[in-house]
Amino acid sequence: YAAKRERTGLRVWDAVDAVGSTRRLALLGDLRRSIAADELAVHYQPKVDPGTGRATGVEALVRWHHPEHGRVVPDEFIPLAEQSGLIAPLTTLVLRTALRDCARWRRCRPDLTVAVNLSARSLLDPGLPEQVADALAEVGLPGRALVLEITETAVMTDLDRALRVLHALRRLGAQLSVDDFGTGQSSLAYLTRLPVDEMKIDRSFVAAMAASSSDAAVVRTAVDLGHVLGLSVVAEGVEDAGTLEALADLGCDAVQGYHLGRPMPAEELAAWLARQVPAPRRGEPDVAPVP
Ligand code: C2E
Ligand code: MG
Ligand code: MG
Ligand code: MG
Question: Residue 257: left (phi > 0), alpha (psi -120 to 50), or beta?
Fold first, then answer.
């Protein structure tokens, strides 16, 4: 009976796997068409200064609404795009959309930055810096308006090659950010060798810090490490007021998460920015907004 059950289990597993790869193949074809037809959307999530409550920047997050399957999450289609060579056109699309939207917002918020996630493949593409330079020039933005979020794992696949690309991006003025810090095979040795400006503490630690003292200790240590290395430290995945307060106390430079603002379409983000109280002018008392 046990053997039979095992066999049955195996068959079920095989079937599930086969359905999985059929879906992957179908999605891949659809993704190719969607990219070519410019059907992917870009949403934006604010990065907020915990001291002032104001957005210092936004992160671009790609969205795909499939005509039959509905919303397909990036964690499913980004790996597909990476494996199939679709990641280059996808990155181009997100980059150009993000810079175009950011150029509009910077007319009212001149210091606002936009962050674009780069996958491992893009980071090893020697043509990327020129592509970024062209995209910046097209909308007339300085390099410092752009933050590029990378993961250490991506860099480690070929350090020398990645470093050449990273240094070229830096020469354009773009800021580099290490995403999901604390996960994967992140290694402190690599962190010190990368020409980065910002560190983002992975949300798995941030979400757990209220309930777990060891996770809180990891976050505290990461903030201190980032500051020792001269980096701006961002905490991602802030979902409640208590965590926000704890991160502000730890000296986090920016916070991001559902508690501050969810990823939203460009028009919604513009309205969200407009609702923020103006920054207090230097030298003037910090007056609370009239209720
Ligand atoms: P990431 O860059 O670490 O982005 C943060 C993810 O956490 C986003 O998921 C965001 O929606 C989600 N998030 C933000 N705040 C909270 C929170 O308070 N709680 C929880 N539970 N989640 C929160 P999303 O948009 O599904 O993206 C997942 C990953 O896919 C991203 O992780 C990034 O690695 C990748 N990705 C997204 N857009 C792009 C893109 O345009 N290009 C590339 N190469 N990768 C992308
Ligand atoms: Mg990111
Ligand atoms: Mg992240
Ligand atoms: Mg992530």
Answer: left
Is the CB of 202 within 6 Å of ligand 1? no
- 239-275 tens-digit pLDDT: 999 999 999 999 999 999 999 999 999 999 999 999 9
Nearest CA to ligand 1 atom 23: 237
Taking the CA of residue 200 as reference, the ligand 1 atom at the shortest distance is 3
Residues with pLDDT less than 50, the chain: 1-8, 10, 290-291
178 CA from centroid of ligand 3 (Å): 9
Classify the C-alpha dihedral 240-263-208-56 as positive or negative: negative
pTM: 0.90
Q: Is any atom of ligand 1 closer than 6 Å to the C-beta of 94?
A: yes
Please give the ipTM for the structure prediction: 0.98
